[in-house]
Amino acid sequence: MDQGAGAVGVGNLAPGILSESTGGALAVQASIDRSDRDASGRIPVYVHSAPGTYLYCPVCPTGGMALTWFRDRFGQPEVARERAEGVSAYDQLTGMAAGVPPGADGLIMLPHLSGAFSPEYEPAARGVFFGFTLGHGREHFVRATLEAVAFTLRRNLELLEGIGASAEEVRSHGGGARSALWNQIKADVCSLPVVTLQGTEAAVRGDAMLAGVASGSFSDLDQACAAAVRPEARYEPHLETHAAYEATYRRYVELFDSLRSLFRWTEPPLAAPEGPGRPAPLSQWPREDVT
Predict the structure, then answer these.
(1) Residue ranges of domains in the chain, CATH in brackets
(2) What is the pTM of this model?
């Protein structure tokens, strides 16, 4: 499992450590010594590669893919410049978002473009932009997207905290960890330091560490971790910014809860008659392969 390898690759080997990966999806990893902590069954749990440890791994199917979706649909100028000048379209978009204040001037996004899994299982959930006005521009939508993933991260951290999985920092990996702005937003929203490691592809490093232990190059994962896992940057939460995010976060949670019954509208009833102009059920739509 790539999330298990990623947890190894950031040194998430024992209780008291949390990590998160913002790749296509958003996944959170917590090392816990028991498999029965979550009586509700809301959190996927796996046997960890670290001996005597289990990995709790809540997932949101759309993490970094939400920003990719925005880039592909609305970031044509940035994509064109990337092709012409080699300047990352992602860096251009997040640079725009850096000029927007926390809370995106009242614009809130729900990032569930592929349904919601954790902390609330709602496969019918869809993406939402709420509260936009004539005064909002593309930069606000990018900022709201970055914040939405951070809000989802916080909801899952709160879920893990409820079963005794808490930590003093979050170790971040995946493509999203390359964005200093996104890392800072996560730190401010969650009120926890976010630490990035040298080399964002933690799963590859974790696989190499496991291979090193299996081949005898390392005596155990602790030795492999000491040799291979090196911090790169640490993003401390800003207390004033965290306080400013509180109201927006509560609105984010309330917005999702308020829309749960309406999300069922996204799937036409199976018995509904087909006809001109009537969309087919989502299960029959063609799917794009996303890498």
Answers:
(1) 2-284 (3.30.420.40)
(2) 0.88
